[in-house]
Specification:
512 residues; alpha/beta; FAD/NAD(P)-binding domain; seven-stranded mixed beta sheet; 12 helices; 23 strands; globular
């Protein structure tokens, strides 16, 4: 692997995050092609915090984190810090790597929305090709406190205790999750470690540019032919003979398209960008998992042994006709209580929490640029809990009530002194909703902002081959391409999509 991309390659992959590392590594398996991978940050090779999955939280809100903020959230928390990692491997260097096989219900929804060819039977085999090891939490990493909460959730909610989750199609349950890590070393299965630095780095045809900020795409005659990339030595034009693949993530991929003149006309004109292609769906359809918070005072401290500290939880359906989980609840070892504290809640020294996620959000936000500069952060509007039927809000409240049931069940109940937040006086749906919405947290799963879909969908940025409509030689491969957000943690699906994207790219090349 050369750390200097030539001026001309066959494939230019912009963004060395979770999807970009997979795509670049897979394309470079063909020795007849040259692949350039451009990452705005440094390598993760010498960053120990990016290697040990137990240290995931140390990567947030630090030197690698773009730490994006949103505009005021009219029905939700306006103080969310959205982590986006600028380092080789991207967010896969900093998340908990809770990994799920694609869910049939998610894939059926994609197809119904126009993503033909993305049915479960077509997508599922790509999960089995992942080079990133995914394992159950090992016995030496299992915390006895978490096991007691798992047992309480199983009893209180009538759920099976799961030892594994990904060996068959999804079923609900409670248990330790499956995580992308090596149980012997605690090495995280990041895309950089598993794809680029575990073999692909020995290939002379994979060229990596680090510290390369992509300013805009170069489009000539309706075809993407390269990008302007700013490094410490200046701005270079890197060109691609075959394709340019954008993998900058669900916030920065639409921002790059917009800076390049591809996006909603009104947004581009307001930002001072010349309109190359009026593509109204760019930046629209933003989805995220909103996470609620319930906190109790605990009788004593818990053991600290863990794989990540967020190793276990339970997933449930609330509505009988739901094809995927409605609520996914994590059992953290350490309470992430900053938003409750901002609301004036005093957290006791010993506390525990449960955090129910709205698994299948119906609310839709957006992201957009306000200037042509790559140095200016995009603007984010989550529009949390604004779906017209109020389902997201209903699921948040349902998740809180289920968590309270778990808290009343032994052996978890014996750990608890009192409910601290929202508090025993908060009982009605309206009271619970107000408290939980004011303090909800992102799970860093923003997605769907360059969605693929049918030709007759005016907001479908991509066709089902992940090609940008109206521009030849250009694809987007990352979570922004999802039509809808997966019900559970999406990192496994992102890598699965990237695996399939590499095949789609090769198939197109074969017919040229």
């Amino acid at each position: 692997m050369a750390y200097d991309t030539p001026d001309l390659v066959d494939y230019l992959v912009l963004g060395g995050g979770t999807a970009g590392c997979v795509v670049a590594a897979r394309l470079s398996e063909d020795p007849a092609v040259n692949v350039g991978l451009v990452e705005a940050g440094p390598s993760d090779a010498d960053e120990p915090r990016a290697h040990s999955i137990r240290r995931w939280a140390e990567m947030l809100e630090g030197e690698y984190d773009l730490d994006y903020r949103s505009v005021p959230n009219e029905r939700g928390n306006s103080f969310i810090r959205q982590a986006r990692l600028r380092i080789l491997g991207g967010c896969s260097t900093a998340n908990t790597m809770i990994t799920w096989r694609p869910l049939r219900g998610d894939m059926e929804e994609w197809v119904a929305l126009g993503a033909q060819g993305w049915d479960y039977d077509a997508v599922n085999p790509y999960y089995d090709r992942l080079l990133a090891p995914v394992n159950p939490v090992a016995p030496q990493d299992r915390n006895p406190y978490l096991q007691e909460v798992i047992d309480s959730a199983a009893t209180a909610l009538g759920l099976p205790v799961r030892e594994t989750w990904n060996d068959t199609e999804f079923r609900g349950g409670a248990g330790y999750f499956e995580i992308g890590y090596d149980p012997e070393t605690n090495q995280r299965s990041s895309a950089s470690h598993s794809y680029v630095r575990s073999g692909a780095d020995q290939r002379g045809n994979l060229h990596v540019t680090l510290g390369g900020l992509v300013e805009r795409l170069v489009v000539e005659g309706g075809r993407a032919v390269g990008a302007l990339v700013r490094t410490a030595s200046g701005v270079r034009e890197l060109r691609a003979r075959r394709e340019v693949i954008v993998s900058c993530g669900a916030i920065d991929s639409p921002a790059l398209l917009m800076r390049s003149g591809i996006g909603p006309r009104a947004v581009l004109e307001a930002a001072g960008v010349e309109v190359l292609l009026d593509l109204p769906g760019v930046g629209e359809n933003l989805q995220d998992h909103a996470e609620g918070l319930l906190i109790w005072e605990a009788r004593s401290e818990r053991p600290t042994v863990s794989a990540t500290g967020w190793d276990a939880g339970y997933v449930v359906t609330v509505d009988e006709d739901s094809p995927v989980p409605d609520v996914s609840t994590h059992i953290p070892l350490e309470t992430w209580g900053v938003h409750a504290a901002r609301e004036g809640v005093e957290l006791p020294a010993n506390n525990v929490s449960l955090v129910p996620n709205v698994a299948k959000p119906r609310s839709r936000g957006r992201v957009w640029i306000t200037s042509p500069s790559a140095d200016d952060a995009p603007t984010i509007d989550y529009r949390s809990f604004t779906d017209p039927d109020g389902r997201d809000e209903r699921m948040l409240v349902a998740g809180a009530r289920l968590a309270r049931q778990v808290a009343q069940q032994e052996p978890f109940a014996s750990h608890l002194v009192r409910e601290v937040f929202p508090g025993p006086d908060v009982q009605t749906d309206e009271e619970l909703s107000a408290a939980l919405r004011a303090t909800h947290q992102t799970v860093y799963h923003v997605s769907c902002t360059c969605k693929m879909g049918a030709d007759d969908d005016p907001l479908a940025v991509l066709d089902p081959q992940l090609r940008v409509r109206g521009i030849d030689g250009l694809r987007v491969v990352d979570a922004s391409s999802f039509p809808t957000l997966s019900a559970l943690n999406p990192v496994g699906l992102i890598m699965t999509v990237a695996e399939r994207a590499a095949d789609l790219i090769r198939e197109d090349a074969a017919v040229l």
